[in-house]
Amino acid sequence: MNNSYSPRIVHWLGIFCVVLGVFWITPATAQDGSRTVREEIGKPVQAALDLLKHKKGKEALDRVRETDVARDKTAYEVFLIDQVRGQAAALAGEAAVAASAFEAAAASPVATEKEKLQFLVAASGQFYVAKDYAKAADLARRYFTDSGGDKALRTLQIQSLYLGNNYAQAARELQADIQTEEQAGKVPSEERLRLLSSIFQKQQDSEGYAATLEALLSYHPKADYWVAAIDGMTRRSGFPDRLTLDVSRLKLATATLRTADEYVEAAQLALLAGFPAEAKKFIDAGYAAGLLGTGQDPERHKRLKDLVAKNLAEDDKTLGQDDVQPATTKDGATLLNCGLKHVLHSRSDKGLGMMEVGLGKGGIKYPKDAWLHLGYAYYLAGQPQKAIHIFNKIQKEEKNIQKEEGAAVLGRLWVIRLGQAS
To answer: 3-state class of 201 per DSSP?
Structure first.
């Protein structure tokens, strides 16, 4: 996944609907007792509104400025001037002027509650355009404190926190929104989750980043997210090299083996583990992807393919002849390996039984790896729900990947993958 994130400007900025076409001024006439406009103010303001109807923002702003010389303005006159100044400045591209004017209109003692909310929206948006992100976020916060409900402004608020480098607060706000959506049975938007992942990267919070990637995979599965999640998993401190083949197995299942070297390494590891049938899966997939048998090393690929075929033929002849007996052996690890080999040769019933018995025996150095392999075997056997059950059992035992063996995060990713396939 591309690690950069650029929030899109929220195009809710229909600021002109707040004022334009709403206020038709009758100079020196009171429409109600508290909202009167003198002619020296009403005439230039009305002229400005007429210019705004023709999208002439700069000219409208010049006419509004004619009111600056008027003395002893009433609260309503100031309120009206601020509104029109704000929309004229916004149209003229003077966002900072517009933002200050709309903020003043929102704070006017004559503004109704509805008007206050409207102008907080307009002011926040113009501060955002002016790149005063702290002010944009603060006015958005005031809007929601006053019971505003514009969801687009909520997005702008969080984007402002992010762009203003207030990552901790942005993360808290986003996490709260996402949790609310999940509790309501709704799917969090991909954009929100991408923004949250970017925030965690900015904070160098690898755990938060990984958790958000898993959420992206769960709700919006894409190959890029699988690549990022698996790569991030292997880069975690303490992730063991002995699980490299297990990582390749997950990559094969998620179609995220991307290079010839990855296919070759996976096949070689499977051969070293004593699983030529599995090595053949990687070789076949690499050829099908057009990455093996081409490029700079086609002969090398051919030699590996032939070696895998030779080992597999020998395996087919001897399979089962050297099996340890589940009833007599105390070596759980050997039972697990023998069982997995049978599963890889499509002898699932026998193989799974051996692996289940093996888990109850001794001699297993990394028990959680054993659970991981059993879950993988159930996946190969076409029993995804049983595999999910096994993978979930790892979660109950392993809570911290940096202290434990690392099987838990692999198990979680397998659960996501199998949940998508079911």
So the answer is: helix
Candidates 46, 82, 87; CA nearest to 63 is: 46
64-100 per-position pLDDT tens digit:
999 999 999 999 999 999 999 999 999 999 999 999 9
Cα 401 to Cα 403: distance, rounded to the nearest angstrom: 5
Q: How far is CA 144 from CA 5, 17, 61, 87, 294, in A?
A: 26, 20, 30, 22, 60
Other beta carbons less than 10 A from residue 122's beta carbon: 29
Residue-wise pLDDT for 357-387, tens only, equals 998 887 788 899 999 999 999 999 999 999 9
Distance from C-alpha of 349 to C-alpha of 331, rounded to nearest angstrom: 20
121-163 pLDDT, tens digit each: 999 999 999 999 999 999 999 999 999 999 899 999 999 999 9
Residue 91 Cα distances to 102, 103, 123, 126, angstroms: 13, 17, 14, 11
Counting every residue written for the chain, the total comes to: 422
Stated pTM of the model: 0.79
Residues paired with residue 331 on neighbouring β-strands, in sequence order = 362
Longest dimension (CA), the chain: 106
Residue 188 CB coordination number (10 Å): 21
- Per DSSP, the chain holds a count of helices (H) and strands (E) of 21, 0
Cβ atoms within 10 Å of 93's Cβ, excluding its own: 11
Q: How far apart are CA 173 and CA 238, in angstroms?
A: 31
Question: Could you tell me the CA-to-CA distances from 161 to 15, 73, 151 in Å, in that order?
Answer: 22, 37, 16
Cα–Cα distance for residue pair 19/80, rounded to 1 Å: 9
Domains of the chain, start order: 16-164 (1.25.40.10), 257-318 (no CATH)
